[in-house]
Amino acid sequence: MMKSFHLNLELQHIYMEVNAERFHYLPLFFESYYCHRHGLVTNNDKTDWEGIFKVAPRSLEAQGITERKRLVREWFLPSSVFIGLLKAMVRDDRLSLAALQTELEQKLFYVVITREEQAKLKQQGGLKAMPASYYQVDHRDYSNPLARFHDAGIYLSDECMFS
């Protein structure tokens, strides 16, 4: 019961912020929503972001690594790209709690990669943005959420679940 309450509360926080077009703090709400959705909370109902490393899908390179220091969590879609999707929902008058929840459940999740892979993403500009090909209708990477990872030579353990 409490998990459902807190999850709905986080969903409503995100909805209110998006509806009011206050996008600055959304990444904090995203993480809280993610943690509550996956039961990553302490006994005091505080989010447990360290738990993300236990449940999130991993890159092939990160699969066998157990040293937490060598791993980082990364949003599957950069938060700026996800926020852009939410802005489009507001612009097109498609924002509702149900539509928001669908977007969050389908596109808002973490992957675990190595620090070296994160450096590759950073070098390619993939930490905060998708490659241009993601937005080009006639390109094979159009709307492919894996494009930034593939451009950096990063492959996820079960890519069929992300396409």
Secondary-structure blueprint of this entry?
Blueprint: H1 2-19, H2 26-37, H3 52-55, E1 71-75, H4 79-91, H5 97-107, E2 110-114, H6 115-123, H7 147-151
Helix pairs in contact: 1-2
Which key phrases capture this entry?
44% helix; mainly alpha; flat
Describe what you observe in this structure.
The chain has 163 residues and is mainly alpha-helical. It is 44% helix and 6% strand. It is built from 7 helices and 2 strands. It has a two-stranded antiparallel ribbon with strand order 1-2. The protein is flat and about 35 Å long. The mean pLDDT is 92.
Biggest sheet features: 2 strands, antiparallel
Total of helices: 7
Cα separation of the termini: 32 Å
Q: In which range does the helix fraction lie?
A: 40-55%
Briefly say what this structure is.
By secondary structure, the chain is mainly alpha-helical. It is 44% helix and 6% strand. A two-stranded antiparallel ribbon has the order 1-2.
